[in-house]
Amino acid sequence: MNVMYSVEDFFVRIRQDAGKLKVTVWNSVGDKVVSDYVSAASLDKVWNNISKASSEAVVESIKERMK
Fold first, then answer.
1. What is the tally of structural domains in the chain?
2. Per-residue confidence (pLDDT) for residue 31, from 0 to 100
3. What is the chain's alpha carbon radius of gyration, rounded to the nearest angstrom?
4. What does 17-29 look like in DSSP terms, one character per residue?
5. Cα separation of 50 and 14, whole Å?
6. What are phi and psi of 65, to 5 degrees?
7. Cβ–Cβ contacts within 10 Å for residue 51, how many?
8. CA dist list (Å): 11 to 8, 18, 36, 63
9. Which domain covers residue 21, as residue numbers?
């Protein structure tokens, strides 16, 4: 999976990196606000980090795209 899209004032990229999913979020001026690998063991931590750096809407959109 390699996808990039916008949500609210953020840009999101979800991509495969060495067999793992990596999520990166940038703000509207292009600053990277969070970049993290998604795994079953770290889901809560990842969602919390993304939510704090962006918004809950970004988290929900990523979850929807990953289904």
1. 1
2. 97
3. 11
4. ETTEEEEEEE-TT
5. 13
6. -65, -30
7. 15
8. 8, 22, 14, 15
9. 2-65
pLDDT tens readout for residues 2-43: 999 999 999 999 999 888 999 999 999 999 999 999 988 888
- Rounded to whole angstroms, the Cα distance separating 62 from 45 reads 14
The predicted structure's pLDDT at residue 23: 96
Is the confidence at residue 61, as pLDDT, over 90?
A: yes
Q: What is the DSSP letter of 42?
A: G
| Residue scoring higher pLDDT (40 or 55) | 55
Q: What is the pTM of this model?
A: 0.90
Question: What is the DSSP code (8-state) at residue 41?
Answer: G
Task: Give me 7's structure tokens.
Answer: 């949500």
Q: Where are the alpha helices (DSSP H) in 1-67?
A: 43-53, 56-65
What tokens were used for 24? 């990166």
